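Attaching the record inline, Q. Sequence:
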Amino acid sequence: MAPLCSGCGPGYRSPLDAMKGPREEIVYLPCIYRNTDILKPDYLATVDVDPKSSTYCKVIHRLPMPNLRDELHHSGWNACSSCFGDASKKRNRLILPSLISSRIYVIDVGTNPRAPQIHKMVEPVDLYYKCGLANPHTTHCLGSGQIMISCMGDPSGNGKGGFVLLDGETFEVVENWEHPGEAAPFGYDFWYQPRHNVMISTEWGAPKALVGGFNPVHVKEGHYGSALHVWDWTTHRKLQTLDLGEEGGIPLEVRFLHDPSATEGYVGCALRGTVFRFYKTPKGDWNVEKVISVPCLITDILISLDDRFLYFSNWLHGDIRQYDITDRRNPRLVGQVFVGGSVINDGPVRVLEDPENQPQPRPRIIQGKRVPGGPQMLQLSLDGRRLYVTTSLYSGWDKQFYPDMIREGSVMMQIDVDSVTGGLSVNENFLVDFGKEPDGPALAHEVRYPGGDCTSDIWL
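Structure, as predicted:
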């Protein structure tokens, strides 16, 4: 939690202060049963990650949702480091949107952090009729006390990249953040940088196209995005659309540097395995340049709190990579580790051509468990030394690309990080096997720490 000080709100004064925060002891993960053979609600799992604990690597609490087939996905906070100067704010509610049902659950994690409970549920109809939006994805708290959630579609399943505002006290839907008629064609993730009066959002695809799995024909038909959108943070007006072209197809997670004065960041593009750097030009507008290209499919990226390292997961190829980004325009690969994927050497795929000329990796076995699927969601410890990795992307795509993960459940692994010179290695003593859950194998997704982390906190 935040260090003791007079008049402090939630989070930390700066990203470098956050790096001095306490070691994580528990984490929260949404676990999904949609698209599996198990007819049970999705749930929020609390996992003990304290190596001194008797329940280390165990799920210590499960909070089932009251509905079926929600597809819990990415979570966020009611308050974070953007509210650090406001002592009246507390980081005590986890905002948990459902990607497919369009419900939003508000979870009380403050009363008993080890056993969260549902505080409130926002029904889909509120998003539909008040905002004309559906399929909520990314949540960020705002310095104003409100909560903002990006959405991917309209109520009919068409692409629509708009933003819902929730009241930070009542959690009622207030209104759209964007102006009428200015929603982007597609939506997904966003990050704002108030010192430069800017927000940048990304695009996945039309919900009705991706709901049943990935079809390359839908890319050609224009149902998937390939652009970044630049917004005026004060007026909420869309200023620019930066077309990334074919090489930038399906731009997903967008990460500004954590330094609130920075005018650049990175976005991972799934379809062609590329990372683009976006930056403010001397003229005052924004531009992009491709800085990394690897065998696809990049699905999650993050940046260490000191803005020194960039990490990404390569879900199909099966590896996690660490880049030194002190030279912002020329990332340098300093760490790589394979943990599953589709090109393992005892699988059905034979690699005929690899521009990196690497041998096909062996299956990853941790504590006797063969890792199903590939590395997907990432979360880095505050001090930058431990990288948590889960293997589920989205249940419809999991079922299509890794049916063994549907049968066996996903896992959470821990990667040890050399945060001095670079380097990654699997912690062989850490594994959370969601194939052994009481109601059957589950698909665990994004990791959150109770005190905040490097993908949810924004500094003003």
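DSSP finds six helices and 31 strands in the chain. The radius of gyration is 20 Å.

More tomorrow.
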